[in-house]
From TrEMBL:
Name of the protein: Thioredoxin-like domain-containing protein
Superkingdom in the source lineage: Bacteria
Cellular localisation: Cell envelope
Record carries keyword Cell membrane: no
Length: 171
């Protein structure tokens, strides 16, 4: 009986914590989402709009992750493979670490220092994450050359739609 209860409890917990795909796939960012500030590795504030502007004219993949996220860490090798297989694509990493110290530590610990990294110093609850319906990580988005959202929702770098979207945008 005790084992059955444990299985039931774990099932409920697992179901309650799974990613849920957003009901609507958005193709553009709201003004509020674009104005959301993040911090770079040096502690400088930068808006999502400024980040997108730096990559205008290029296809961009945004990878949402954190060092405390087991699923994110499991996905890192496949994300690196996606990046390696797409040398003409830009990649940025949005961290959901809980502090600047944790952000810095995760960049060092997981060999992310050579990548373009930002973190939400405002925490998980912010205008950008709310707008994109971020309810779990890892999460991946593909942004087109005009800063529109080409692939709104993917939870694995192995999602074949990520590569298909990239290929379509590069034609």
């Amino acid at each position: 009986m005790k084992q059955i209860m444990i299985v039931i409890m774990l099932s409920i917990f697992t179901l309650g914590c799974a990613q849920k795909a957003p009901e609507v796939s958005k193709t553009q960012f709201s003004k509020e989402a674009l104005n959301q500030k993040l911090e770079d590795e040096n502690g400088k504030n930068i808006s999502v709009q400024e980040i997108l502007d730096q990559h205008k004219g290029k296809v961009l993949v945004i990878d949402f992750w954190a060092g405390w996220c087991r699923d994110c860490l499991k996905a890192l090798p496949k994300a690196e493979e996606l990046e390696k297989n797409n040398p003409n694509i830009d990649f940025v990493f949005f961290s959901l670490e809980r502090s600047k110290e944790k952000f810095d530590g995760s960049l060092e610990r997981f060999n992310m220092k050579e990548k373009e990294n930002y973190w939400f110093s405002s925490g998980w609850e912010n205008n950008f994450n709310k707008y994109i319906d971020l309810n779990w990580i890892p999460r991946y988005m593909v942004i087109d050359q005009k800063s529109g959202i080409a692939k709104y929702y993917a939870i694995s770098p192995e999602d074949p739609e990520i590569q298909a979207t990239i290929d379509k945008l590069l034609k």
